[in-house]
Structure formats: structure tokens, C-alpha cells
Amino acid sequence: MTSPLEQKKIKIAGPSVVTANRTWDGIVVYRTAAKSWSADLSEAAIVRNSDEAKALLAESVADDVGAIGPYIAPVQVGADGKVEPGNLREQIRRTGVTIGQPVQV
Amino acid sequence: MYAYDEIDRTLVNERVSEFRDQVKRRLSGELTEDEFKILRLQNGVYLQLHAYMFRVAIPYGTLASNQLRALAHVARKYDRGYGHFTTRQNIQFNWIKLAELPDALADLAEVGIHAMQTSGNNMRNVTSDQWAGVAPGEIEDPRIWSELIRQHTTLHPEFSFLPRKFKIAITASDHDRAAIKIHDIGLKLIKNEKGETGFEVLVGGGLGRTPFIGKTIKHFVHGRDILSYIEAILRVYNQYGRRDNIYKARIKILVHELGIEKFSREVEEEWQQIRNSSLQIDDEVVEDIRSRFTYPAYEKLPHMPDELRQAAADPDFEAWRKNSVAPHKVQGYSIVTISLKPIGAPPGDATAEQMDALADLADKYSFGEIRVGHEQNLALPHVAKRDLPALWKALDKLGLATPNVNLITDIIACPGLDYCSLANARSIPIAQELTRRFANHELANLIGRLHINISGCINACGHHHVGHIGILGVEKNGEEVYQITIGGRADESAALGNLIGPGVKFDEVADVVEDIVEAYLALRERPEELFMDTVKRLGVEPFKERVYATR
Ligand code: HEM
Ligand code: SF4
């Protein structure tokens, strides 16, 4: 997964969200339509073209105290409206490491 | 062990208060992330996929038992109950909260541990041989010089904003356990004809996107001149290093582009100007540092105690002893490597319970001292041979006696896509699967010394270029693909591996490694011919044929 940190141009191929890490504790968060952050992907604002994406990203970047390193990430939206991460990297960010941790939490 | 003086303690404590204030200002919005990033990086705080990551320095790989307990405490109180030992004598915590970091740092400061210069474009933690001070035949304890360089470079303004990160490693043994040839500067302690201590200086090693093996820039630099010589190298680097292009900013690129002759002429010129300055080190300074390293009061013990003779009848003990126990410079003692590579587990991870228990074992059996090596294993440096059987039993109970040190399952792997925001592909699950494939100890022993190194992207934190078998994760059309090299090595004969062919998919990697190993077993001339020797004798071709014939 080419790191989105190298994301230069904003070009989206399908439904996308803006994701980042919450500033005070670092957990994965998604930008919501209510201009806030949520740890729940199902609450994320979905954008479908690059203008929308640009606007959502700009608004997210401006909220620098809330979360850091925002970028646009692909999602898949099922027929039932269920939102899933669009690639392995985002899947891992959402569900955690794929390896089992030495100490279960 | 090394005892910090008042200056060090004050420095570490001041740093904690400073960082506490910076975090407070960040959380209140007074500092933006852009402003804060460089500050957090100077304190070892990265952002990974799921959380912040906190990297703590273990200077020259030496830990006291109370320091290991403090690391266990941080793992338990501020993280998820474990830590990850890395290839540069650091430990990383993967789940730390920014708001709690100042407290974690303060707890560590109480035992003299800090995270200064564990990230950012500065002089990083100076690393050394994890057997320093106890390896037979060593010129002298390389940690004395590591500490001297640490003191000189810590928070040194000239080295705090370099074109890129800068890493120094030091060894004092012929067998290089510190991988000095893949560091920006590698130092090998030697004696000249007059019996004076000095260094062979290597420069320009490094892996990453453009890997290079370090080259000797000077065959002998007297100990008293080592700071001025390093400073001269850094000045030339500071002056010419490519600040405009992150991919070309490491010193290895400069050395390569200028050529080692021109580069060394530049350094020489610079050096002549500063050599006789205050950078020249008085003997007293070295002696003062030397006196702060304490060594155990060793007993006079037999070479072969009864306890060891009796335990030798137990094949499980013997299997562990053969791979984990190494000769010590003092008769009757051994150096014991503790494998952090249990079958099926992430390489280099240790739980808080294991760290605490190991600290107790170090108190009981190793004069309270623990070492951290670049292979992501730990060591107890002063174990009386008579205690080996008891120590083994205790380690086994903790899951720390896997008898695989230096074998195929002793894998070095970076965090990869499970943790790292720069990753292209996962590393740890590949390592886990490989350890399961070669879990049979007889098989692993039959194969003999074989190092597998895995990185999840071209930054090469897992040193894949210098693995006997190197595995690099890349991304192709949204899928994880792995490129496999053979023939690399990280020791005194350091070499970069050669690609065996097109990349293979996640599910195929373990099969391919099995094929390579089967080919080796069939091709080797005798059981003592190590994998490396067979690759050297025959090249990549026969392995390539074997791997791709059926794929
Ligand atoms: C997950 C957080 C990490 C990040 C973001 C990270 C980032 C990087 C980057 C960007 C480089 C390349 C620097 C350059 O060539 O200029 C690098 C190199 C390196 N990293 Fe990491 N790293 C991480 C974890 C680790 C770990 C866990 C280890 C040890 C197991 C490690 C050991 C190294 C080493 C030894 C190099 C030097 C390779 C060379 O000589 O170029 N890093 N790291
Ligand atoms: S090699 Fe790449 S994936 Fe692995 S830790 Fe380093 S930066 Fe991350």
C-alpha cells in the first residue's frame, strides 16, 4: 500500500473518507459530516468526487488540534450502505494488527 | 554498568519538563502539528497507523535491571503490556498516548533513561557490540568510546539539524556484532604498532532505498583525535549533504557521489584545522568515563563445573546451550543470549512480565545487567557457568529459552504494515509463518547459521539487504508482493544480497524460502558449509532455478 503520506495530487477513484489520528491519544478517527471526528467508520462523511474530497480535507486540516495527519482514504460502500475500508492498510487501521498481540487487550 | 553524573541527570530531567510543556501547548492548540512535529521527533515520538509510537534509547545496548523494570512499567502503565526491541538498541512502545507521554518520560528519567535523539535528523543513539566488555579478545570496552561520543553529540547544536539522520556504531572485536559497515560512520577499535588505542574509521554505509557498504576512510585515527575526526566528517556532510532531496540526503550518497578519495581529502583538510583544538581528548577524560563503567567482582570459578557436566545429559538443555551460550573473557562465566524469537511470535517483542522476570534473573545470575543486541535479542552478559542449568529452566518457564539463536527462525523483521505508516506490506506475519515452517529444531540445526531479514518497505529497517535471505515487501496493484534476495551479510564481511527474480505474493513467501533452503541442503558440499558459503560458491542461479522452475 503506497503510503498516503506520499499523497500529492488529490484524485479519487471512488467513494472516499478523510481519516487521521486523534491528537491527544493517537487513535484512528474519521471526519464526520458534522465537522467533527469519530472513531467509527460508519459515521464518516463520504465524498465521491475530487472537489468534495478537497473541501473535506481542507476543513479537516484546519482542525489541527483535533487530529493530525489527515488524508483521503478509499472506502467501499455496500448495497446496504455499509462502509468498509478500501484497502489493506485502511483495513488494518480500522481493525488493528493482523498478528495477535503478545498481551491481549 | 555506567553511572550517570549530575550533568546527565539534570539534562534528562530538564528535557522531560521541556517536553511536558511542549505537549501541553500542543494539546491546547498553541502549537500546531507542524511546529510540534520536530519537537516530538526529537523525543522519539512518531505517529504510526494506530497510535503514536515512542522510541526509547538504550545507549550501547546496556541496561541495568532497574532500568528494564522501568521499561516494563511503561509497557504496563502507558502501553499495552509489551515493548518491541529494535535493530538499533532501542525499544519501541506502539500504543502510547501523547497526553501521557510526559509522565512516561518522567518515570524513565528516574532511572536515567530517555528518548533523546532516537528520531529526527540528528546524531542517533550510538550503538555498539552487545557483548562489549565481556567478549574474549576484545581490544577494550567499546562502550567507553560510545559514551564519549554520546556525551559530545547529545544536543550538540551542530549535529541537531543535519541534512538527515546520522548513525554511528562501534565494535572492538574482529567479529563485528554491531554491523558497523552499514552505518553512516562505523568505528572499529584497534591498536597501532606502538600499542596505542585508536580506530579504523568507515563511512558511508547504510541501507534504505540506495544501499551501500561503508568504506574505510582512515586506517588509524588515534583515540584522542576521534571527536575531531568525527566532527570533520560531519562538517563536510553538513556542508555538502543534499538537504534539497530527502532520498539523497544521507551521507552514503555524498560519499558515493564525491568518491571516497575526494571525500576523505575534504575531511582531512577540515580535520587538520580542528585537530589540535579543544576537541582533542585528554587521557583524564577517557579515564573518567572508564571509571564510571563498573564491572562485576567475578569469582574464580572452574571452567567446567559439575552442574554443567550433569545438565549436559539433557538434550533440551544442550540444544539451548549450543546456540545461546557464548564464551566470556573470564573463566567460569558465559554470555547468554536470550531469544526474543519464539516460534509463531513477532520478532523482538517482550511482555512487561517477561521484562520484570528477566530483570530478576539478571539480579540473580548476571550482576544486575542486561544487554540488547541489533538482532532484536537480549543477553545476560555475566552468567556463572554453574548457574546455566538453573537459568535455562527459569527462562524456559518465561518462554525465553527458544534454542534458535543465529538459526533460521532467529528472524529480524521491522514492524511493517501492521504498525508502520510508511509500510507497503506486512513483515511480522511473514516472520511468524517462517518460524512455524522451521519450528522443528533438528531441521533448523541441520540448516545451521542462516539469517532472514524482513522489511515492509524500502527504508530497510529490517536490514533486508544484508540478510542471508532478505525479504522486502513492496506494493503492486494494491497487493503485497515480496522481493527476495540472497547472499547479503551484516558482519565484518558485509555484503548486499542479490535479487533472485520477480516478486512473490504474501502466501508464497514461506514456500519460496523453503525452496531456497531445500536447494541449499541439496547443493552444499558438506554439512559445515553454511548457506552463505554455498551462495558464494555457486551464485544466485541454482537457487533461482529451483524457485522459479515451478512458478
Ligand atoms: C514504525 C516506525 C518506524 C518508522 C516510521 C521508521 C522510519 C524509517 C525511515 C524513514 C528510515 C529510512 C531513513 C533513510 O534512509 O534516510 C528508517 C531507517 C531505519 N530504521 Fe526505521 N522506522 C520505524 C521503525 C523501525 C524499527 C522497529 C526498527 C528496528 C527494528 C528500525 C530500524 C531502522 C534502521 C536500522 C534503519 C536504517 C537503515 C539504513 O541504514 O538506511 N526502524 N526508518
Ligand atoms: S522498513 Fe518501512 S515498513 Fe518497515 S518499519 Fe521501516 S519504514 Fe516501516
Explain the layout of strands and helices.
The complex is a heterodimer of chains A (105) and B (551).
Chain A: E1 16-22, E2 28-31, E3 37-38, H1 50-62, E4 67-77, E5 83-85, H2 88-95
Antiparallel strand pairs in A: 1-2, 1-4, 2-3, 4-5
Chain B: H1 6-28, H2 33-41, E1 45-47, E2 52-57, E3 62-64, H3 65-78, E4 82-85, E5 90-96, H4 101-109, E6 127-128, H5 142-153, E7 168-171, E8 185-191, E9 197-203, E10 215-222, H6 226-240, H7 251-258, H8 260-274, H9 283-292, H10 306-311, H11 315-324, E11 325-327, E12 333-338, E13 349-351, H12 352-365, E14 369-372, E15 378-384, H13 388-397, E16 412-413, H14 428-437, H15 441-447, E17 452-455, E18 469-476, E19 479-486, E20 498-499, E21 504-505, H16 509-523, H17 531-538, H18 541-548
Parallel strand pairs in B: 6-7, 7-8, 16-17, 17-18
Antiparallel strand pairs in B: 1-2, 2-5, 3-14, 4-5, 4-13, 8-9, 9-10, 11-12, 12-15, 14-15, 18-19, 19-20, 19-21
Bound molecules: protoporphyrin IX containing FE and iron/sulfur cluster.
Average pLDDT for all residues of chain A: 89
**What can be said about the biggest beta sheet of chain B?**
6 strands, mixed
The main sheet of chain A comes to: 5 strands, antiparallel
- Give the overall pLDDT of chain B as a whole number: 92
Percent of sequence in beta strands of chain B = 15-25%
Overall 3D geometry of chain A? globular
User: Can you tell me the residue ranges of chain A where pLDDT is under 50 for at least 5 consecutive residues?
Assistant: none
Strand residue percentage of chain A: 25-35%
Count the DSSP helices of chain B: 18
Shape of chain B: globular
Q: Based on DSSP secondary structure assignment, what is the total number of beta strands of chain B?
A: 21
The unique ligands bound to this protein are:
protoporphyrin IX containing FE, iron/sulfur cluster
Terminal CA distance of chain B reads: 53 Å
Q: What structural class should be given to the helix and strand makeup of chain B?
A: alpha+beta
Quaternary status of these chains? heterodimer
What is the radius of gyration of chain A computed over CA atoms, rounded to a whole number of angstroms? 14 Å
Query: How do the helices and strands follow one another from N- to C-terminus of chain A?
Result: EEEHEEH
Q: From the coordinates shown, what is the CATH architecture of the largest domain in chain B? A: 2-Layer Sandwich
Q: Please tally the helical runs of chain A, counting DSSP H or I stretches of 4 or more residues.
A: 2
CATH superfamily of the largest domain in chain B: Sulfite Reductase Hemoprotein, domain 1
